[in-house]
UniProtKB/TrEMBL annotation:
<dbReference type="InterPro" id="IPR020843">
    <property type="entry name" value="ER"/>
</dbReference>
<feature type="domain" description="Enoyl reductase (ER)">
    <location>
        <begin position="15"/>
        <end position="327"/>
    </location>
</feature>
<dbReference type="InterPro" id="IPR013154">
    <property type="entry name" value="ADH-like_N"/>
</dbReference>
<keyword id="KW-0560">Oxidoreductase</keyword>
<dbReference type="InterPro" id="IPR036291">
    <property type="entry name" value="NAD(P)-bd_dom_sf"/>
</dbReference>
<protein>
    <submittedName>
        <fullName>NAD(P)H quinone oxidoreductase, PIG3 family</fullName>
    </submittedName>
</protein>
<dbReference type="InterPro" id="IPR013149">
    <property type="entry name" value="ADH-like_C"/>
</dbReference>
<dbReference type="GO" id="GO:0070402">
    <property type="term" value="F:NADPH binding"/>
</dbReference>
<keyword id="KW-0521">NADP</keyword>
<dbReference type="Pfam" id="PF00107">
    <property type="entry name" value="ADH_zinc_N"/>
</dbReference>
<dbReference type="InterPro" id="IPR011032">
    <property type="entry name" value="GroES-like_sf"/>
</dbReference>
<dbReference type="Pfam" id="PF08240">
    <property type="entry name" value="ADH_N"/>
</dbReference>
<dbReference type="GO" id="GO:0016651">
    <property type="term" value="F:oxidoreductase activity, acting on NAD(P)H"/>
</dbReference>
Amino acid sequence: MTSIDGHILRMTQYGGPEVLELTEVSVPTPGPGEIRVRTRYAGINYTDLKIRAGLWPIRGSSPFPYVPGVEVVGEIEAIGADVQDLDPGQAVITMMQGLGGVRAQRDGGYAEFVVVAADAVAVIPDGVDALAMAALGLPGVTAFEGLRRLGPIGGGRILITGAAGGVGAAATSIAKASGATVTALITRKEQIDYVRSQGAHDVIVGSRDAARDLGASRFDAVFDVVGGTGFGVHVASLRDGGALCLVGAAGGGDVGFDAWQLIRPITLTGYSTETLDGPSLRDAIARLGTLIASGNIVPPRHRLVPLDAAAEAHREIERGNSERVLLIPQAGREV
């Protein structure tokens, strides 16, 4: 196997979207235990924007040049020595585990080809549309893992905050498929139809940081992507025996709640995909694949953007567009 040429988007400094530069590079041959993946879809996540702006600095003394992107869906193009149970041509998904991100152990997913450890991929199940899996992608895995930490939710009532965002929408769809009755907390009335299409039974429109009409002891579970000043309200909305899992803090990490809540029989926990490993990824993708194939979950709304238009996509997301954006590796390529 030999190296090949491919395009990447890289940055040599922190800054605005304009620091993303399309560059042609030589893609390395996969080494022992590695595979090379030809990218079909690379999701844009808020993590990418935070890192690009320097708000979440890249770890390491020499962070640049840096290639953003923490997830890729594509086909195995080449395999290195000692790789078992994977073959060229298989559709796979990989995310986190040092792919871009603040750890940046490898170049990220804004690229035509990525080289990753074979253990860091999951094969997309036969019969599952790769685009549907990419649309779920990291938000879907985050939602799945966060919901799992709440314990069984079938037959219960669950509050999902930030339900119109990528993770919240995925959580809404997965929770509905699990048999829960979902109440979606959103910030704008125009989001109502969308969250209902994802599986919400009830919808509350209120401030991102506080929805005072949630009521006390109302929900069996809370899936919280907001945190912030509304966190205390979310905690108080739990019934005895309920659980809350925090998977994000769009409203800020400075939270507070009535300390007396801690003597109630409730569980407060959290999840971050920084802890994601290969076995967990493969389990989540297998389960999500089953739900996609059966039509029991609806991938969040999404659109395709050429790799060389990523800077403008970053600008749109920063202006408040919450639609899932998937980069495709060649400008104008039909997918």
